[in-house]
From TrEMBL:
Gene3D superfamilies: 2-enoyl-CoA Hydratase, Chain A, domain 1
Pfam families: ECH_1
Protein keywords: Isomerase
This protein's name: Enoyl-CoA hydratase/isomerase family protein
Keyword rRNA-binding: no
UniProt keyword 4Fe-4S, yes or no: no
Amino acid sequence: MTASVTASALVGGAGRDPLLDEDGQVVQPLLTIDLDDQVDDAGRALASARTIDRVMVGFASGPVTGPARELARALDVTLVPKGASSGREFVGCEEPASEAALLRAAASANPQAAVVLAEVLRAGGEDVTAGLHLESFAYSTLLGGSEFASWLDERGTRPLPPPAAEPVLVERAAGRLLITLNRPERRNAYGRLVRDSLVEALQIAALDDSVEQVVLTGGGPSFSAGGDLDEFGTAPDLTTAHFVRTFGGAGRLLHQLSDRVEARLNGHCVGAGIELPAFAGRVVAAPGATFRLPEVSMGLIPGAGGTVSVPRRIGRWRTMFMALSGRPLDVQTAKTWGLIDEIE
C-alpha cells in the first residue's frame, strides 16, 4: 500500500489494507493524508478514516476548514503551517509534508509501539482510573515485545542504581506540604526509590484533609529525567509490573489530589517528569524548561500516566505528536498548548 493518500482516496478504501502480514508483523504503521485535497463525500471519507487501524497523520499547506476540519479530528494529528489553524488537533510547523514524513519514519522504526499508542489515545475517555489501567495493560504488552527487547540489547547491561538515604524530601509547614524529588545526581529519575517515596509523601495529603496545598518540585537543575533507564526491564514479570504501575504508582494519587497540587518544574522534564506533573491542578515551569515523551523510540508508550494526564491538558492529537516525534517541547509552546499553566 502507499504510505500517503489524498482525503478523496479514503472514500475508495485507501489505508484499509491489512495492517499485519502473514507473520503478524505490522505493515506500513503510519498513513499520511493530504488534506489540501477537496473531498467530495466528506461523510464517507470520515467513516472510512474511523475504520483505519494505522496511525493517521494529516497535513496541509494552509488552513484546514469545512469538512476537512471534521476529518482532521478523526485523525491522530494534523500538521499545518504555523498559525494556519487553531485547535488541539493541529500542530503548526515549518514544512507540514516534510514533518509528516519524519513522523512516518519514527513509526516505521517502532511500528508496534506507534500503533499501540494510537489505539490507546483513541480509546481514552473521562475515567482516569480506567485510562491508567488501559495504558498499563498496553505498556506491559510492549515490555514483552521485540522492539523493547532490541532497545534493551542496544542499551546493554547496567548496574542497578545505588541506594539513597532520602530520595524524596518532605517538609510540612502549617497546611502546606512541600515534596522535593531529591536525586539530582541522577537527574531525579523516577526509579523505584523515588516512586515509592513520592507515593508515601502523597499519601500524607490523601489521609490528612488539613493539608491544603501540595507543592511538588525537583532538586537540582532538572525536575526529572523520567524513568530510571538502569531499572528498565528489571520487573520480575509483566503482571507484577502492571500492578506496580497502577496500584503502586503516583499518577492516581496525583489525580485524586489534583485540586490541591501545584507542580513547579525546571530544566528537563522527560517521560514521567511531565506525565506525573500534568495531573496537577496547576503546573508552573521555569523559563528554559523543556518537555519530552521519548518512550516510542524505546519500543514503549508513556507508562507513568502520560496517555491520560497529557491528553487531558493538550488533547490526544498533540500528545501523539510529542510521543511519536520524541522531540522536546519548549516552555512557551507548552504554555500555549496548555501543558503548563504559567512560566515563572
